[in-house]
Design brief:
Mean pLDDT: 90
Strand order of the largest sheet: 3-4-5-6-9-10-11-12-13
Shape: globular
Number of strands: 13
Strand content: 15-25%
Low-confidence stretches: 1-13
Distance between the termini: 48 Å
Bound molecules: S-adenosyl-L-homocysteine, iron/sulfur cluster
Order of helices and strands: HEHHHEEEEEEEHEHEHEHHEHEHH
Length: 386
């Protein structure tokens, strides 16, 4: 047999076995009941999978040999396949992960002095068409499953060898942001299932204070997120008035600013200790004047919040430019003088296209003009569907 054939056979075999990653605790207990095992087996497996990071049943030494073989026959503990891994000169690492159906998504790890943040994707592509975002030019292919969402975190942690889970909170991978590809609130059930696994205290055990979900502003789901998950909330605001926001974020026509800001005011736990983050991408000549800054201050009056000013990260074919450094500083100062925090985010991993809004998984070789036309076509097609 050629190695290609043996690989294919091995894949086919994997595909018929069920991946235990991503199952809720209850589903894991049911899977054990299905093979005639007691519910406490689920607890043991959970520990091996999410505390120890084991991927091989043979390593699960407190299970009998017979049970290990039985598990091996029916199940796998699988990660997405790493199709590519790149490390930036600033230490940022980006993975292109491939799922069992061949679809791909990107994950980024951003190390800092006091923390390390894993930026996770929730969809392959995105249905929305924010004009400044590279992912927005990609067609939505599908939602990621809980296994694929939590799998990105597990694979990132494998890459840094950080198993068993350090329990003292001094962890390399200490924070999660749902700011990769896709709109997490259009895949809320799967995102929530994955985050519950990440938060479970007998496994990865990240507290909800260390998880931030970023949304373009899907108002009804913001309410749900607050009620059911209550992680930190970040809003891609990017404009202080409906006219500007409608142009760069078409979702604003569905959920205008008044409703969006109200949803933020209603978000549980929004307090000075746990402020809502407003992300604001600085686009030259579009949303970056002192008048825009003053309008922003008025818009968020009385809301416990902070701003995060993001210098626009260009991508091939984009119609926009980043605001000048002086303009960004002046903008930050106006907000700062109103008593609101407005740090300017340092772009990370630009050399490997890992910075905000640069993620996109199909990278054909096209000229800038061809890319621009392709982006416009993709936006028109997607907006016709939504
Ligand atoms: N879909 C979600 C999360 C992913 S985007 C959302 O829109 O919030 C993560 C952040 O990067 C968002 O604030 C997004 O608006 C911002 N972003 C998108 N494209 C960007 C670009 N080219 N430069 C800088 N930030 C960008
Ligand atoms: Fe989708 Fe977010 Fe990009 Fe908008 S900014 S297109 S919601 S990924």
């Amino acid at each position: 047999m050629t190695s290609e054939i043996t690989d294919t056979l091995a894949d086919a075999q994997t595909n018929t076995r069920v991946n235990l990653i991503g199952l809720t605790r209850e589903a894991l207990a049911e899977a054990m009941a299905g093979i005639g095992e007691k519910p406490f087996r689920a607890k043991q497996l959970w520990h091996w999978m999410y505390y120890r990071g084991a991927t091989d049943f043979a390593a699960m030494t407190d299970l009998s040999k017979t049970l290990r073989t039985k598990l091996e026959d029916r199940f796998v503990v699988a990660r997405p396949k790493t199709a590519r891994e790149q490390t930036s000169s600033d230490g940022t690492r980006k993975w292109l992960f491939e799922f069992t159906d061949g679809q791909k998504a990107e994950t980024v790890f951003i190390p800092d002095d006091d923390r390390g943040t894993v930026c996770i994707s929730s969809q392959v592509g995105c249905t929305l068409t924010c004009r400044f975002c590279h992912t927005g030019t990609q067609r939505l292919v599908r939602n990621l499953t809980p296994a694929e969402i939590v799998g990105q975190f597990l694979a990132a942690r494998d890459s840094y060898g950080e198993w068993p889970t350090p329990m003292d909170e001094r962890r390399m991978l200490s924070n999660v942001v749902l700011m990769g590809m896709g709109e997490p609130l259009y895949n809320f059930d799967n995102v929530a299932a994955a985050m519950r696994i990440v938060m479970a205290d007998d496994g990865i055990a990240l507290s909800r204070r260390r998880i931030t979900l970023s949304t373009s502003g899907v108002v009804p789901e913001i309410h749900r997120c607050g009620k059911e998950l209550n992680v930190n909330l970040a809003i891609s605001l990017h404009a202080p008035d409906d006219d500007t926001r409608n142009v760069i974020m078409p979702i604003n026509k569905k959920y205008p600013l008044k409703e969006l800001i109200q949803a933020c005011r209603d978000y549980p736990g929004a307090s000075n200790a746990r402020r809502i983050t407003f992300e604001y991408v600085m686009l030259k000549g579009l949303n970056d004047t002192p008048a825009h800054a003053r309008a922003l201050i008025k818009l968020v009056k009385g809301l416990p919040c902070k701003f995060n000013l993001i210098p626009f990260n260009p991508w091939p074919g984009t119609p926009y430019e980043c605001s000048d450094a002086d303009t960004i500083h002046e903008f930050a100062e106006i907000i700062w003088n109103a008593g609101l925090s407005a740090p300017i985010r340092t772009p990370r991993g630009r050399d490997i296209l890992a910075a905000c809004g640069q993620l996109k998984t199909d990278s054909e070789k096209l000229s800038a003009r061809e890319r621009r036309l392709q982006a416009e076509k993709a936006w028109a097609e997607k907006e016709a569907v939504v």
